[in-house]
Design brief:
The protein is α/β, with parallel strands linked by helices. The model has no long low-confidence stretch (mean pLDDT about 90). The structure holds manganese (II) ion.
């Protein structure tokens, strides 16, 4: 079943070999796998699968760490327990290997560890599907960036390539990681669907088993939707329908909803946390990379992956933000 899955892009094969060589050269070291803070199911699942890769390569001195878990990750781990270690329990030693999962940014990692990474205390490996930022790439000894909808999927392919099989016990994590980062397959590609399908059949369960990962927009506070729409500004750029608004919470959730409602691109600002969320539909997601670098050159601090961008903002006003983004969109949608 799973051994019949073909690994889609050559990138994964290359990455699998890079990991293999890195592990071979660093066999004597302790390996710590660290997902980003407030661990979501993609981060925890990809970390657990990566842990199995290391164990299977003979690295017994390896651990999955966490600082805090998201509510859905807590449910996942209560249904499918896996031993994790709290980062507070660990005394790190110089030259340990830190494998950072599902993040491209130091600021998303526990504070306790940031300075150590910056001072090159660890050998650093990064495995992630967000577009790489300079800050971490220059510190990493090995940086594996997948152009994928989830980090989990990339690590599943690495596992499959290296060992020609995939254990049933890891399937729930593979499914959860993929479902969680694709909005329960709403933003999936065909590889996501075939992987999830194969594993669901292998486990002989229904997708319902994972419904705790399904965030339906009708769980959103209705007043949030109303106020978001009231303040919304609309525009058309190169035939694409754009919506722009600001709210006090749940900006990425609302952003997501606008795309489901039919906008090609939605931009939602969260004034309270000075964050900005952008989502693109299937007709515009190809501009993600262009938009990201364009926005960063305009003084935003953005990261993201195909179709999804999140930014920290400076003190720009709504007007300035909208006009900056409009100009970026004009350049990228050409
Ligand atoms: Mn992710």
């Amino acid at each position: 079943m799973l051994d019949k899955i073909t690994i889609p892009s050559e990138g994964y094969v290359d990455y699998a070999n890079k990991i293999k060589n890195f592990v071979k050269q660093n066999k004597k070291r302790t390996f710590y796998i660290l997902p980003h803070s407030h661990v979501d199911p993609d981060a925890v699942s990809s970390s657990i699968i990566m842990h199995s890769v290391l164990l299977k390569m003979g690295i017994e001195d390896s651990y999955v760490l966490y600082d805090s878990l998201s509510s859905t990750s807590k449910i996942l781990l209560s249904k499918y327990p896996y031993p994790l270690k709290s980062i507070d329990e660990i005394d790190f030693h110089k030259g340990d290997v830190l494998v950072v999962m599902d993040t491209n940014s130091l600021t998303k990692l526990p504070e306790k560890i940031r300075e150590k990474i910056e001072k090159k205390y660890f050998k650093l490996v990064v495995i992630d599907h967000h577009l790489p930022l300079k800050q971490l790439t220059r510190l990493a000894d090995l940086y594996l960036y997948f152009k994928a909808t989830s980090t989990t999927k990339g690590v599943v392919y690495i596992y499959l390539y290296l060992f020609k099989t995939f254990p049933k016990s890891l399937c729930p994590f593979a499914i959860a990681g993929i479902l969680s980062d694709t909005g329960f397959l709403r933003y999936s590609d065909k590889d996501d669907i075939s992987l999830v399908n194969t594993m669901i059949n292998l486990l002989n369960v229904s997708l319902k088993e994972f419904s705790f990962l399904y965030k339906s927009w009708d769980t959103l506070d209705k007043s949030l939707i109303v106020s978001g729409l009231k303040r919304a500004k609309y525009d058309t750029i190169n035939g694409k329908e754009i919506v722009f608004t600001h709210v006090g919470s749940e900006e990425s959730h609302l952003c997501n909803l606008f795309v489901q409602l039919g906008f090609n691109i939605s931009i939602v600002v969260n004034r309270r946390y000075e964050r900005l969320s952008i989502r693109m539909d299937s007709t515009t997601r190809h501009i993600t990379e262009c938009l990201l670098s364009n926005l960063n050159s305009r003084g935003f601090e953005c990261g993201g992956h195909e179709g999804v961008i999140g930014c920290n903002m400076t003190s720009k006003s709504d007007k300035e933000i909208f006009s900056d983004i409009k100009n970026s969109l004009k350049e990228c949608l050409r």
